[in-house]
UniProtKB/TrEMBL annotation:
The keyword ATP-binding applies. Residues 11-73 form the Kinesin motor domain. The keyword Nucleotide-binding applies. It comes from the Eukaryota. GO terms for biological process: microtubule-based movement. This is Kinesin motor domain-containing protein.
Amino acid sequence: MPDDISPTVENVRVVVRVRPMDQRERLDGAAGCVSVDAVHGTIAVTRSNTTSPEPPRIYAYDAVFDSDTSQVS
């Protein structure tokens, strides 16, 4: 790499907010499938509609917010 070109480092932060269930989902009796761990920055997705039990899938982010968090600051 030539001396006059320096590498650029870009950092991307990923933040997730789990939305609350809407009225139709509540009326249909839908069950929540996402659990939020804000302390560790993870969400766990559990599939309840499978015939054999599956462990939850865990996803990590820079920050996570549960469905009680307002979008308005």
